[in-house]
Amino acid sequence: MSKYIDSKCKLCRRERTKLFLKGERCYTDKCALERKKNTPGEVAKKIRKKLSGYAVQLREKQKVKRMYGIVEKQFKKYYEIASRKKEVTGEVLLQLLERRLDNVVYKLKFAPSRATARQLVNHGHVMVNNKNVNIPSYLVKENDVVSIKDKSKTLDVITNTLTNSKAQIPDWLSLDLPKMSGKVVQLPQRYHIDADINEQLIIELYSK
Questions:
Q1: What angle do CA 60, 62, 63 make, to 5 degrees?
Q2: How far apart are CA 140 and CA 108, in angstroms?
Q3: Partner of 14 at 20 to 30 A CA spacing, among 47, 62, 81, 176?
Q4: Which residue has the higher pLDDT, 11 or 63?
Q5: Cα 47 from chain centroid?
Q6: Is there a domain that residue 39 lies in?
Q7: What is the DSSP secondary structure assignment for residue 39, as one 8-state letter?
Q8: Which of 94, 132, 127 is nearest to 110 (CA)?
Q9: Position 20 in a domain
Q10: Per-residue exposure over 29-48, b if at least 16 CB sit within 10 Å of its own CB, e if not
């Protein structure tokens, strides 16, 4: 699997929107997007060319891929699954992304970013329905309970995020803070996803 090793803040500047890849830093004035309005490699005063329709669609896909931290092969697989469903393809695509275990761990404020959440899952700190699950792409279901292992509840990265995170837990999840566990109250719907995403552009790109 390919790994991005450059500055994560460059990704936000490239997409010209916050992808929340640096945890709490993204909520402060230290955010690179707040300090540098131009994209990497672009002269600050240079007049930006109007993007073609294809370029707009491509940028939207790249933005969502980077937001959830997945590669093209995985992303296309989610699209193919969504396209076979009877529901609206774009909404199903976003639902699949939101249901990823690493995203749920992040949304429950057990980790400051999706990348850190992915590490917690990979390293065996997370359980689903009291069973060990170390696959970040695991898709949670309604009524699933996602919890932190007892021996991992004192990890600084978890306790600090629960204490300091300014993020809001979405309505489709509920958090039991004393137990450090969360429940999937219902599957995520489009209105639960407040990120600036135009999924129709992605569907149009893959439909060509």
A1: 65
A2: 13
A3: 81
A4: 63
A5: 31
A6: no
A7: P
A8: 127
A9: no
A10: eebbeeeeeeeeeeeeeeee
What letter represents residue 137's amino acid?
Answer: S
Whole domain around residue 151: which residue ranges? 100-187
Q: Give the pair of three-digit tokens for residue 24.
A: 């709490």
DSSP state of 23: G
Interval 14-61: pLDDT, tens: 555 666 665 655 556 656 555 565 666 555 545 556 788 999 999 999
pLDDT tens readout for residues 130-152: 999 999 999 999 999 999 999 99
pTM for this prediction: 0.79
Instruction: Say if residue 164's pLDDT is above 60.
Output: yes
Look up residue 99 and give its two tokens.
């249901």
Contacts for 134 with CB less than 8 Å, ≥ 6 apart: 121, 122, 123, 124, 126
C-alpha pair distances (Å), 48 with each of 19, 30, 38, 60, 191: 22, 25, 10, 17, 32
Among 56, 17, 65, 95, which residue's Cα sits nearest to residue 204? 56
The CATH number for 174's domain is 3.10.290.10
Burial class (CB in 10 A: 0-12, 13-18, 19+), 134: middle
* Residue pointed to by tokens 């370029």: 55
**Which residue bears the tokens 């803040």?**
9
